[in-house]
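Before a colleague's protein record goes any further, I have to sign it off. Alongside the sequence sits a line of tokens, each denoting a local backbone shape. I want your independent view on whether this chain really folds as the tokens say. Where you disagree with what is written, explain briefly why. This is what I was given:
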Amino acid sequence: MDDDQMMAMDEQLTQVFQSRMSSSGRKSAQDQDLQREATHFKNRVLDLVDLFVRNEPTSPLLLSFILPLVDLATQCSSDERQLADKAKGILRNRICKSKEIPSDIDVSTPLQKVHQLARHARDSETLALLSETSVFLVKTSKNPKLCAGEYQTSIEDFATRKNSSLNPAFFQIYIKRFPEQAWQLRTNVMPLVSQSVNGYRASQTLQLVLFLLQTIDSPDISELTLLLSDVESAVSILISRSAEDEVHLTTQQAKELLKACSSVARKYSKTGGWKPVTWIQLAETFRKSSQFEKSPVLPEICLRLAKSLETPESEGKPAVKRKLEKADSASRKRKKA
């Protein structure tokens, strides 16, 4: 091939590339136009959904919007941020906060889907939205047992799976709104403390039970006494294992757990569910532990808790009285040192 033929071929190749670039540009512009039209259409659909929700807040058909709105709010691309924000607004402000709601609805499918998404939520904002949606579905449900079961499954995921996206707030909102329904979970949640993936999750799972004890009003006394005993035992085992480096629990995590225990102790001090001697022994465990020896606040919290549990019967027991006096004396000496 001579130079003239090479030049002719170059010109032909140039024309081919220019033609393709021009075609690609037209296609890109067409794609952008289609994207704008699709976004505009979705916006109009959301306007119609918003109108329906405002005018028919008690309609059973409201439930059919939940999952599409959740998908739009949580799975939109960055180019559709406006649509996502609009869907969140409808879910959060129009549906979840409405005082008028449908009732006695079968929520099994949307509730299960919402909890599945929550267990793998990509950020805390998404998880908060899913939590609000879940609470709304529980309010409209005709089957409290089904709702409690879904939360039970999520608590298991939270306690036993390291990469779970769930957090305590997801469950606390549910417990606060539906304490009697959440009370059904107590016997199934307690075994999860020992099955937790690490000490921190074990502590948080225990704190959920303690939060339930703080929230519930007038529980059955026999059920209450049994649960208090189980919680006291679980706290004692967790702290002892942490002191022996069998599980990891930081000073701050132990402190938060003890503070939650103190709140429960104040509420149920007259039930006799907890024993002062247990908390005196835990104070000694903290003092003797190399991990917690530089944290005098932990044994002090235990001693204050033990004193709050004193009753005329326990005060009359010389052994308990001697242990409290001995622990107090040791605490004062450490402060002077």
